[in-house]
Amino acid sequence: MFNIFTVTRQTTSATLTLHSSSCFPSFFLPIMVLGSLLFLAVLLPAGVLLKRNDAAVQPPSDSEQPSEAQIYRPVLQPSEAVPPIGTYMLKNQRGTPCIKATVGVEYIVMEKKSWYFNLDPSRVRTSGRCDDRDAVLSLTLPDNAASLQLYFKKEKTLFYVTKMMAHVSPMPICKGCSNKTYSGLVDHEKLFKTVDGRSFKCNSEKLLLMSSQLQIKLVPVQMQAFTLSRGQYGKENECWADFNKRVIPIIIGATVVGLLLIAGLTYLFIKDRRRQGYDSL
């Protein structure tokens, strides 16, 4: 009596089917089954391994590439350049403009020699606060690489800047030099004093000594705090430096013209006296 025995196993590469037949003696069946199982045991892992290798050779996408976080650091320059001008505005909790400043800011670092860095308005983040009598405007670069804080105070009908703080954390100025932060402040001052409702304006540079290694140059500067009608500057109060630059040439010119006029009149007077003396003879 012969039984028909069928073994079917499909792998990723082939399908093997074995049939016993009445033409084979019954004692061949165990041998055929054992051989088939051994063949499948060898073939099946190979197919799986081929599939894994195909997946492993896929190159990683750009999004999977590891990337290091880049920290923004100012780069000091050996020569001076005119700083770009930015306009910064701060609003109070009611959404009303309370501080407006248009200024170019230059950091001057003294490290054996003078090094320069200009504040980039496109990178600046504006923050601060506004109260009835006190206000703060803070200009900060990404990663707190540099900052400038102006502290405003209102006193009766005047406002002014009572304190300034600044810092800069630049790239080392030489190979092997360590990272360093330069900071400083100017306190208990009455800078840019102006009548409330008006703006302080100065096209001449204003150089402030923050510390023995840091200076801040503001050029030009226009600012107004506490009272800003529709966010616009009020009537301008001119700084003394601009006033002197504008008025002194006029005074010198008028003085020269006056001296020339006096000299001319004196010459005519003397000439006329001499003519009268000749006539009397």
Short summary of the structure?
With 281 residues, the chain is of the alpha+beta class.
Which structural category fits the helices and strands?
A: alpha+beta
Percent in strands:
35-45%
Radius of gyration: 43 Å
Shape: elongated
End-to-end gap: 179 Å
Instruction: Describe the largest sheet.
Output: 7 strands, mixed
Question: What is the number of helices?
Answer: 2
Total DSSP E strands: 14
Helix content: 10-25%
Mean pLDDT: 80
Order of helices and strands: EEHEEEEEEEEEEEEH
Pick out the low-confidence regions: 1-24, 44-68
Structure commentary:
The protein is an alpha+beta fold. It has helices spanning 28-56, 240-280; strands at residues 6-10, 15-19, 85-91, 97-111, 113-118, 125-130, 134-140, 146-155, 158-168, 182-195, 199-202, 206-209, 214-225, 236-238. The strands form 3 sheets. Strands 3, 4, 5, 11, 12, 13 and 14 form a 7-stranded mixed β-sheet that branches. Strands 6-7-8-9-10 form a 5-stranded antiparallel β-sheet, with no helix packed on it. It has a two-stranded antiparallel sheet with strand order 1-2. Strand 4 and strand 5 form a beta hairpin.
Distinctive features:
five-stranded antiparallel beta sheet; seven-stranded mixed beta sheet; 2 helices; elongated; alpha+beta; 14 strands
